[in-house]
Amino acid sequence: MKTNRFQWLLVGMLASCVILPVQAEQQLRFPVNPPQPREGQLLHTPPTMDDLEAARMHPELKRVIRRGHDLFMNTQQLRGKNVFNDMNCSSCHMGEGRMPFASPVWPAAVVLPNYRPKNDHVNNLEERIAGCFSYSMNGIPPEYGSDDMVALAAYHQWLAKGVPIYQLGDYYGRGYPIDQPSQEPSHERGHALYENNCAICHSSDGSGMRVKGETHFPAVWGDLSYNWGAGIIRNFTLAGFIHHNMPLGQPYTMSVQDAWDIAVYINSHERPQDPRYEGDVRATRARYLESFHKHGFYGTEQQGRLLGDHRNTGEKPILKPEVLRARTFTPQ
Amino acid sequence: MKTPRKTLLMMSLLLSMPLFAGIEGDAERGRTAAAVCAACHQADGSGMHIPGGESWPRLAAMDAGYMYRQLVDFREGRRTNASMMPFAAMLTDQQLKDVSVYYSQLPATPGQGGKDAAADLLKLGQRLVEQGDWERYIVPCGSCHGPASQGAGSNFPGIAGQHAGYIERQLLDWKQGKRDNDPQHLMLAIAERMTEQDIRAVAAWLSTLPAQ
């Protein structure tokens, strides 16, 4: 940060000394400076939808991948059937699921099937996608093997084109990596930061903005937001998302500390119940503590209120989708 | 004892005025006050696309709260335009609200300036408007400006169906540091990443789209 400021200072000094006949190449006021790849990281630039059109593939496969892309970008077309909140896949996986540091989705296609601590068994790609529907979209996933599920999985796999599978290495830009904050995250600072930076789109009450009855800016808490089982209720995940991606078009303007402060503010509000809830929020927290809930506020008291102590499932008519079942992989 | 009566009167006056995006204005009074606007923005609020000149934006069906804030910004010098400044200063604050409400209620008229653009320019414009270019961190217009870029509340005006000349000028102004009254510089951050070709393309494509 010091170097940047110093550079600005230099530019300012030069500009004040020299009268330029024409405006020089502008210095961006909002440069985008993502972390650079580290030694040994795998860099992958996923193919685009134009590449798909140009690819030598069966036209029917192209059509199915296009369908997957369409579902990914506009998941609200499944509202009331598979999606029961204001989210699209692309709400979290920005830039068509291709962007580094916006949780690009291609890694899932090359590391799965794999063991997943969250549900303590081996998951394949479709089950992983079903997780997003069940938690982040507070929904009921499309059936395994259904047209929509196959189309979505095909789109993921297309984005991973060319990446060697089962190389459980270090992928550049995967997830939303973030450092620990230098100070304890503060609800109060987070509140002020939220009002100044987030509320213009997501509104002061967290409900986002709907336009002509449709989702526009997603709700970040409340009935139309992600539920208590979504990965992003973990403060480090939300902080990472914010730091790398928010406000829209101005990534990295929220410092690591700002991002943590905003994350704890947002995540100290209520949202629909974790589908794994079994009637006692403290017991549910304890059961999934190590693998999940120790990173969030579910089942803890925040601002004088025990969070998640309710049976509210938002617009979703049930608590737990049937597909969220345990697997044993043992012969019957 | 006069105060409660006065308050009641005020309240009934307020209640009789429709609320638009948080501003209270009277369309009928606005119609009268808008006489000074019509020379450029036209009686029907359609504005005018002027190739090579200063285009005047369509105001019809634009969000009232957005228009009011722009007028205040012209008046206060937060947004500069030699033609607009005297008019924004000439009207009272209530008149600024009234004309904003008046224009917001007129039916949208078609955007101009894009129909004769080259096919490849329109194609680039459509791509940037609908998909953006995330490699350069140019997000799709609709991600802020609402479904089909037809507007979202008072902070994100409708840009579909606006005149190409006006949109092009505004984006260039942001890029060149001549406009910066956008909340949190959400527009500035994107505009400064766009090339002049991108800007021409987006402006041309948006002008061909329906405003409502």
Automatic annotation (TrEMBL), chain A:
The chain positions of domain Cytochrome c read: 75-270
Which Pfam families does the UniProt entry name for this protein? Cytochrome_CBB3, SoxA-TsdA_cyt-c
Q: Would the keyword Heme be found if you checked this record's keyword annotation?
A: yes
Record-given protein name: Cytochrome c
Tell me which positions the record assigns to the signal sequence: 1-24
The keyword DNA damage appears for this protein: no
Q: Which UniProt keywords apply?
A: Heme, Iron, Metal-binding, Signal
GO MF terms listed in the record are: electron transfer activity; heme binding; metal ion binding
Species the sequence originates in: Marinospirillum alkaliphilum DSM 21637
Entries under PANTHER family matching the protein? BLL4482 PROTEIN-RELATED, CYTOCHROME C DOMAIN-CONTAINING PROTEIN
UniProtKB/TrEMBL annotation, chain B:
Signal sequence span is: 1-21
Q: How is it modified after translation?
A: Binds 2 heme c groups covalently per subunit.
Query: Which residues does heme c 2 bind?
Result: C141, C144, H145, M187
Q: Which keywords does UniProt give here? A: Electron transport, Heme, Iron, Metal-binding, Periplasm, Signal, Transport
Q: Which GO terms describe its molecular function?
A: electron transfer activity; heme binding; iron ion binding
- The residues that the entry says bind heme c 1 are C37, C40, H41, M84
Gene3D superfamilies from the UniProt entry:
Cytochrome c-like domain
Read off the Pfam families from this record: Cytochrom_C (PF00034)
Q: Where in the cell is it found?
A: Periplasm
- GO terms under cellular component: periplasmic space
The parts of the chain that form a coiled coil are: none
Cytochrome c domain mapped to chain residues: 25-107, 120-210
Does the keyword Heme belong to this entry? yes
Which InterPro entries does the record cross-reference, listed alphabetically?
A: Cyt_c-like_dom, Cyt_c-like_dom_sf, Cytochrome_c4-like, Cytochrome_c_Oxidase_Subunit
Is the keyword Phosphoprotein in the record?
no
Q: Which PANTHER family match?
A: CBB3-TYPE CYTOCHROME C OXIDASE SUBUNIT FIXP, CYTOCHROME C4
What name has this protein been given in UniProt?
Cytochrome c553
Organism source for this protein?
Answer: Marinospirillum alkaliphilum DSM 21637
